[in-house]
Amino acid sequence: MNKTVLSLCLSLCLTSAIALPTLVQAKPLTLTTTLKNYNGDGAYMAIYVIDEKGQYNQTLWVAGEKVKYYRHLRDWARGSGLKPSEFDGVSGASVASGRVLKVTVDIADALIDAGYEIRVDTAVEDARENPAEVRTPLTTKGAGKPTAGRGYVQSFIYDM
C-alpha cells in the first residue's frame, strides 16, 4: 500500500472516530414512577418509547422479574415482541403498592422534541391491566412535570 492510500485510510479512521460520537449522543433520563396505594401484589411495569406514528421504538425499563407475566403489559408486549434483547439489562423487581421506582437510563438526543412519547403499561396479578396507563410527550418542556396515571400510577416524572 502506498503512502497516499495509507494516509487517506488513517485520516478517514480518525475523522470517523471523532464524528461518530456526535451522531449518536445520549442523554441520561431519570424516570420516577410513584404508585398509588392499592390492594394486591407488586405491579409489573413497562416504560417504553413510541414514535410519532404510535409505533414501538424502544424499552426504557421493565419492572417485574417473571418474564411469563410480561404478556400482561399488552401494548409494550406487542411492540417489543417480548424479545429478550428488548428488556435484557433494563429490568428489575416489581414495585409494591405506594412505592416509588426511580431509574436512570440513557436515551438518544434525537428522540427528544421529535414527536416521541413515553408510555407506561402496568399490571397486577389477579387485578386490572392498564395498557398505556401513562402517556407523556418526550420533550424538554415536559421534563420535571408529573403525569398522572389512569390505574396504579399516581405520578410519572422524567428528568433530564
Write a brief structural summary.
The chain is of the alpha+beta class and 160 residues long. It has helices at residues 3-23, 74-80, 84-87; strands spanning 26-35, 44-50, 56-63, 91-92, 100-108, 117-123, 129-137, 153-159.
Topology:
Elements (H helix, E strand, L loop, with lengths): L2 H21 L2 E10 L8 E7 L5 E8 L10 H7 L3 H4 L3 E2 L7 E9 L8 E7 L5 E9 L15 E7 L1
Parallel strand pairs: 3-4
Antiparallel strand pairs: 1-5, 1-8, 2-3, 2-6, 6-7
Characteristics:
160 residues; alpha+beta; 8 strands
Can you describe this structure?
By secondary structure, this protein is an alpha+beta fold. It is 20% helix and 37% strand. The protein contains three helices and eight strands; from the N terminus they run H-E-E-E-H-H-E-E-E-E-E. The chain has helices at 3-23, 74-80, 84-87, and strands at 26-35, 44-50, 56-63, 91-92, 100-108, 117-123, 129-137, 153-159. A five-stranded mixed β-sheet has the order 4-3-2-6-7, with helices on one face. A three-stranded antiparallel β-sheet has the order 5-1-8, with no helix packed on it. The longest helix has 21 residues, at 3-23. It is globular. The model is unreliable at 5-23 (pLDDT under 50).
